[in-house]
Amino acid sequence: MLGTAGAAYGYYEYLASKIHKGQRVSGDTHAIKPKANADGDTPLNILILGSDTRSDPEDAKLGGAADSTGARADVIMIAHLSADRSNMSIVSIPRDTRVNIPKCTDPKTHQEYPATTDIINASLARGGAGCTLATVQNLTGGLYIDHWLTIDFAGVVKMADVLGGAQVCVQQNVDDHPTAAQPGGSHLHLTAGTHTVKGEQALQWLRTRHAFGSDAMRSKAQHMYMSSLLRNLRSQNLFSNPGRLNDIATKAMSAFTVSSEIGTPKKLYDLGMQLKSIPPNRTTMLTMPHIEDPENQNHYVPAPSAQTVWSLMRNDVAMDANGKAASTASPSAKPTTAPAGPPAAAPATVPVTVVNGTAGTDEGVPTSHRAGDIAQELVAKGFAKAAATQQAHPSQGTTLVYPASAGAQGRSDALSVAKALGIPATGVKASAQADAITLTVGADWKTGTDYAATLPKAGSVPTDADAVNGAEDSSKNCMYVEPTYRF
């Protein structure tokens, strides 16, 4: 028994030694982790980053020489697992999307980077993955990102090999070679039809951009790869094959860098186990809706419909319509009161500050008198101390916070405000910065006085998000290849 225990501990320490970790957040952001629902569960959001770093010789060999710009986040995805773990969505943010990058501090060098406006993949070099996480939380209107995972070129090759590859498909022969206009290229070389790619060829597939036409089409190709990979893993009974499971675990520990709060073998194992019960037809992969950047035709900015995607995620509403309650929002998105706690104070005694955040961003246009209109609605519902503030605070999403120092009573009072306006209980959060119950009316609630009426329904993904269901056969939707890159 002692020998077995010693061997198990030794193996655990061996795996732990392979894990690379980093600080979860290193930029200015105010997203707050949501409270658990009545069952004690919360949604889980994981930021997945693909880094183009060439600092390691193995990475340089796979992707070219290092340059002066530092590592960039060429793949940016948010994986959202619903609170009840019945469904999952993966949203790609095109790397060339122009966003506001907040002030960030590099956790290793302690160098400070001022806030700036740039394409989102530049955030990785301005404070590491924690800076990209802060940028994404702000972009999505306060979606709380629990963890991040990053993988580099060499890591992709390792994982593609050990997982057994994925099925992909192209409409025409493709050769993603350097051109005068676009030097570099992924060097992907495939004949028309369906192929199983693994190892370095998998990396080439995931990096191909110009041959598929754009960064958005590259996201679509990545979704095809990931969807097939998930189906492939589900078809393997890994838990009855310890040797295979061990091989995957060992490679994964060294292939990824993770945020420090999940930087142990057990926590990573528990994270993986949360995926096993989600069926393919409850998995949705999509790309953030985007339009051409008016300041640079080679870049993007979020389309107005991106707000629907972020609202679905913030309110934990399924992206697919294959659940039991397909015609309504998920249970966690329904306006409810807390299952326990002290009774709320009389509405007339509860002060509420209402802020106009409908501009969404610093460049956005707010809805006039919005805070005053909502404050007036609260007064009509008995909250006599509700008042609008003249100070605007642009916010993509509507938030309702109460002072953390107010404890359970403050939460009960805030929940009574939420119920009056149809705001889900999951949207009520404690804040150390708040000195009173504060409602910020975001860009997702520009009209009307019933917030519940603005909540998207399950499956209501915008058509310009290019959504793909995890159960779909990729061979039915092969990638189109630009003529320049055909052979």
Q: How would you describe what is shown here?
A:
The strands form seven sheets. The chain has an eight-stranded mixed beta sheet with strand order 1-14-9-2-3-4-15-23, with helices on both faces. The longest helix has 20 residues, at 215-234. The chain folds into two domains: 7-329 and 466-485, LCP protein (Aminopeptidase), CATH 3.40.630.190; 331-453, no CATH class. It has 487 residues and is of the alpha/beta class. 27% of the residues lie in helices and 21% in strands. The protein is globular.
Tell me briefly what this model is:
The chain has about 475 residues and is of the alpha/beta class.
Helix percentage range: 25-40%
Query: Termini distance?
Result: 62 Å
Just give the CATH class of the largest domain: Alpha Beta
Low-confidence runs (pLDDT<50, min 5 residues)?
A: 64-69, 326-338
Instruction: Supply Rg.
Output: 23 Å
- At CATH level 2, the architecture of the largest domain is 3-Layer(aba) Sandwich
**What is the CATH topology of the largest domain?**
Aminopeptidase
The rough form would be described as globular
Q: Proportion of β residues?
A: 15-25%
Q: Strands across the major sheet, in which order?
A: 1-14-9-2-3-4-15-23
Helix/strand class: alpha/beta
Question: What value does the average pLDDT take?
Answer: 87
Number of domains: 2
Largest sheet: 8 strands, mixed
**CATH superfamily membership of the largest domain:** LCP protein
Secondary structure tally: strands: 23
Tally of alpha and pi helices:
11
